[in-house]
Each structure stands twice: as structure tokens, then as C-alpha cells.
Amino acid sequence: KGPYDRLIADLGLQDRVHYEGWVPHVESIRYLQESDALLMCMIPQAGGGNEKLSGKGFEYLFMRKPFLCLAKQGLTSELFAQTELAHIVDPYDEAGIERELIALYEGRNDAVVANEALVQKFDRKNLTGELATIFQGLVDARSTTPRGRVQEVAA
Questions:
Q1: What is the CA radius of gyration of the chain?
Q2: What average pLDDT does this structure show over 49-74?
Q3: N or C: at which end does the chain have fewer Cβ atoms within 10 angstroms?
């Protein structure tokens, strides 16, 4: 039994909600691809901050699907809002969550339009290319002397 089975039953949602539990990453990506909309919970933890961007956030951007993001205001929620994919709501704002769920449902047949330039900026291939350029610059700076001669760098 899943940890949410009792809650799902208490709410009478057994015919509409199924808690899958942990699945391998490849399978989780397939679920994302098959979904019409996604959910990201960034509910603050005691002693923790709200300024984090998880790997899941990058996956959501790559999918280019609308998502409900339950998060406090901060840099991460502001970034997601700029992508035009996220519906940002405070995690404790029940009326706001309901409003955004209705908006997602009503817009389920609309074409999804993302801020493509911003989404591309966070694409894994682009980020990897930028990191490689930085590393190459460090290697180049370390391996040449001020006179332009190459010096051996100890590994």
C-alpha cells in the first residue's frame, strides 16, 4: 500500500488518483511525457531556504508542458514564471491552487507556448557547452606563460 492510499480513500478519489510510488528515472520521464500538466511541490522545510532549483525543474522545462508550482516567492519561482510554463502558487493558498488547477484544466487543449529563449538557456546541452567553454578557458590560461609559451601542467 502506498503512503497516500488512506487519504485518497478518505477523500473518495480512488477512481481518479493512483499513487505510483518510486519508479526508475527513465520511467518517470515517460510519465512526464505522457502528462498534460505537471506538479512541482517546493514546500519550504523548517530551517531550509526557498532558493533552490532542483534537477526536476530542468526536466520540467525540457518537457515544455504547463506545470503547477507550489512555491513561496523567490528566485526560483520568479525564474519559472518567466518561462511562461509555470502556474506559481503559494503552497498554503488553497483558493489559488484551485484557481490554477481550473486554469490548467480549461487550457488543456490550448497550444503550449513557452519563453523558448529562456527555456533553451537552461537546456542540458547548452549548459554543458557553457561549462566546457569555462573549463577550456581555465586550461588555456593555466597552460600558457605570459610570453605565450606552453608550460607543462601537473595533473
A1: 21
A2: 84
A3: C
